[in-house]
Specification:
The complex is a heterodimer. Chain A is α/β, with parallel strands linked by helices. Chain A is built from 12 helices and 16 strands. The longest helix of chain B has 17 residues. Classes of the chains: A alpha/beta, B alpha/beta.
Chain lengths: ~400, ~400
């Protein structure tokens, strides 16, 4: 039985290596045009890093987008999130008159938020001594800083949570936000994810043999994930209010589930996909050998010969923001009735079940799209969007 | 059909006043102050001298499936508290593995260990600054692996409201039928970076924490962890489990005001307390005890007291409100999880923990802080407050089963 209250998606926003906005991101993903480049994040006072293959966000003028005031204490990744959130809000035609502040909230997924600021905060102490480090930047070392800055800047007095479950983080934040709307605790939620390719992440990657070619999701020759960064936000609101507002409903959140199985991540994802009906999958495969294998097995076993798109072949690995990226793409796929290609896949891995992947954007009737996520540590989550 | 109620059937706690449930609870009843000079790292150049520390960690028995040496301290604290909670609940997780999950609240979690790694990089230009063991997700994954949980596994890093956030999330998972058992709590270790921040903000007390005192100076950071076993009531009853309390409800409204200062009217605090009571279908006059956030900072305590008075009105005059942070210090993501344990034991034993170190009650804090001595007082309903940087707020109601 459908509960009386349903969460629907009415707006999208993103900041990605393809530029500001959900549109350039969708356009690149739809056309399968990646933007990988050799790049070395730098940090004052720390040794330079060798260039690393990745996809990074071009510098942007935050004051132009977000307004001049009150940005000084807002760290880089929070600015990215604010820009994505503002776009999503405008796209949904949110007029703050529609929703009192206490009925608006924000749930964010992240794996690394605050990490770069934490390290910088510590290194500045080494350089300058503790008395000369500004403490006002201290709160930016926290995982919750992006969601908190969003609440403060846009007067979101309703629920505010940050979720961290590796690559599943923002499927989980969006799924739980839909739950809260269905429960009637809140009417409007900004839900999504944020993660950045910072110095500590790049340094960690540089100590492995980093990828020397773009990612190849599910491909026989895949090596490893290629780092990237991004922020993506979905506006979720109560369906009845959205209908009254006469805003276009892009999709409805139908199911969300999450599970854990450290011995067999594929089994965890299979459990999440039990009973799920969908016309296509927007998957989390990123070119990592174990990750992609688990996901391919679970999809083939539970959903059979379903069309699949692994979006991170085009974007690179968004870590904790991956789920929000996938759900943004899934929403666009439903609206445009097009499944994007899987960039980087060329040759079937004989050890994996064969998935229905496309080399070009494919028009097809899509009513339901499921986003899947799995991690080698055993986590899995899945969320289904439906376009009525 | 009504969703199942969530009940508390097991408790595990590691705190600066005692490790283990009995040690913790008798120390709290005795008013033991667990804060003292910092020994875990060299704090000489920081304007901080006090911390709440656990002492050497004896966690070998908690780890059956993974070597503890693989993990940072916060993860080890989480595993140890989760193991203790499972034992206290007498719960065999293997029978419900797919329906059992873990959710933990944290502030810094496994990040403090990065500081020494990056000091080496800064000083020597080289070193292994790997992130794998500093992964925050391990705080939930390692306990899930130890206990055999295969349901929802999550970390909620919602600043100092995190322990309560985790209990709220767990209760939602059970009410929605997504799990029958959830291990929910919080864990954090001491972080020199956080000491630096609070010292620069001039937020520390230099001797002890004096919540609601007229001369209070500030907080003292501490480390710790606590885990509560939460179960769907039918599941707990079917296995004949001892039930400490019902998780009546929870509320989560943000201050949306400032990254460090609480809203001057206690907006998020008031709304969250009211929402938690409404969720529990209770009136303010039904509450017998408030476990305050009570950090001992001038701003927090006055605003929290005001918010409490706004919510409880005249009932405030007969409502005990205490802060065990006066004894433990502020254990960050673990704080409200540990305070939730205290709420459950207050209901069980009819005892309200004291607020220690009060010399003169601040007239700006017109509440009954249970100063100096544990109080015998029947507690049917306890409200636990937790507020964090960034305006994160989470309040949880516990009720007699």
């Amino acid at each position: 039985m459908r509960s009386l209250r349903q969460a629907v998606v009415t707006g999208l926003g993103a900041v990605s290596p393809f530029g500001l906005g959900a549109a350039p991101l969708w356009s690149a993903v739809r056309q399968g045009r990646p933007r990988f480049d050799a790049y070395a994040p730098s940090s004052d006072d720390l040794p330079p890093l060798p260039p690393l293959l990745g996809a990074r966000i071009e510098p942007f003028n935050a004051r132009e987008i977000l307004g001049r005031k009150g940005l000084r204490a807002v760290n880089y990744e929070s600015r990215l999130l604010l820009a994505a959130l503002l776009e999503a809000s405008r796209a949904a035609g949110i007029d703050n008159e529609d929703y009192p502040p206490t009925r608006r909230g924000v749930f964010m997924g992240t794996r690394r938020a605050g990490l770069d600021d934490y390290v910088r905060f510590h290194v500045e102490r080494l350089v300058w001594g503790p008395e000369r480090v500004s403490p006002t930047r201290g709160p930016n070392t926290g995982f919750n800083a992006p969601a908190s800055h969003a609440a403060i800047r846009y007067d979101l007095q309703g629920p505010n949570l940050t979720f961290s479950s590796r690559g599943c983080s923002s499927i989980d934040s969006i799924g739980h936000a839909a739950d809260w709307i269905a429960l009637g605790r809140v009417d409007l939620m900004y839900a999504g994810g944020i993660d950045c390719l910072s110095y500590p992440v790049a340094r960690d990657r540089s100590l492995d043999a980093p990828a020397n070619e773009p990612p190849r999701p599910y491909d026989r020759r895949r090596q490893s994930a290629v780092p990237s960064e991004g922020a993506a936000v979905l506006v979720l609101e109560d369906e009845q209010i959205a209908r009254v507002r006469e805003v276009e409903v892009l999709a409805r959140v139908e199911t969300w589930s999450t599970a854990f199985d450290p011995e067999d991540p594929a089994r965890a994802l299979s459990r999440c996909l039990q009973g799920v009906e969908a016309d296509a999958v927007v998957a989390s495969a990123c070119g990592d050998r174990r990750h992609d294998a688990s996901e391919a097995c679970a999809i083939a076993q539970t959903l059979g010969e379903i069309p699949v798109c692994a979006v991170q072949g085009c974007t690179g690995d968004w870590e904790g923001a991956s789920g929000a990226l996938q759900l943004l793409v899934a929403t666009h796929a439903l609206v445009h009735q097009v499944l994007p290609p899987t960039v980087g896949f060329e040759e079937q891995d004989p050890d994996l079940p064969e998935l229905s992947l496309r080399a070009t954007p494919t028009s097809m009737p899509l009513r339901r799209v499921v986003a899947t996520s799995v991690t080698p540590s055993g986590r899995a989550s899945a969320l289904t969007l439906v376009r009525d | 059909m009504r969703p199942p109620r969530t009940v508390v059937t097991g408790l595990g706690v590691l705190s600066s006043v005692g490790v283990g449930l009995d040690a913790f609870w008798s120390a709290v009843q005795a008013g033991t102050v667990g804060t003292g000079p910092i020994t875990r790292f060299d704090a000489s150049e920081l304007r901080a001298s006090q911390a709440g520390e656990l002492g050497p960690l004896d966690d070998g028995a908690a780890f059956e499936r993974q070597p503890p040496g693989r993990f940072q301290r916060a993860t080890r604290l989480a595993v140890t508290a989760a193991r203790a909670a499972a034992q206290d609940a007498g719960l065999d997780v293997s029978a419900v593995a797919d329906r059992a999950g873990v959710v933990m609240g944290v502030v810094v979690a496994n990040r403090p260990g990065l500081e020494s790694a990056y000091s080496r990089l800064y000083e020597h230009g080289a070193g292994e600054q790997r992130l794998a063991t500093h992964e925050v997700a391990l705080v939930s994954e390692a306990p899930a692996i130890e206990l055999g949980c295969r349901g929802p596994v999550m970390v909620l890093p919602t600043a100092c409201a995190a322990g309560n956030s985790a209990i709220g999330f767990a209760s939602d998972m059970i009410a929605a039928g997504r799990a029958d058992v959830m291990f929910a709590g919080g864990a954090d270790e001491l972080s020199p970076a956080m000491f630096m921040m609070f010292a620069q903000f001039d937020s520390f007390s230099q001797d002890v924490v004096r919540p609601f005192d007229a001369q209070r100076e500030g907080l003292i950071l501490s480390e710790g962890s606590a885990v509560l076993v939460l179960e769907a009531e039918h599941h707990a009853r079917a296995r004949g489990a001892r039930i400490y309390a019902v998780v009546g409800g929870h509320g989560n409204f943000a201050d949306a005001h400032d990254m460090t200062h609480p809203h001057p009217d206690g907006l998020g605090a008031r709304l969250s307390m009211q929402a938690a009571l409404a969720d529990a279908d209770l009136r303010p006059c039904d509450v017998d005890y408030v476990s305050a956030h009570g950090t001992g900072t001038p701003a927090n305590d006055a605003i929290e007291a005001k918010a409490i008075r706004d919510v409880f009105g005249a009932h405030t005059d007969v409502l005990p409100v205490s802060s065990i942070k006066s004894m433990l210090g502020h254990s960050q993501g673990a704080a409200s999880a540990i305070e939730s344990v205290a709420c459950c034991l207050a209901i069980r034993d009819g005892l309200v923990p004291p607020t220690m170190n009060i010399r003169e009650l601040d007239t700006q804090c017109p509440i009954d802080p249970v100063a100096g001595q544990v109080r015998r007082h029947r507690v049917d309903v306890a409200l636990n407050n937790a507020f964090g940087f960034g305006g994160n707020v989470s309040c949880v109601v516990f009720a007699r089963p």
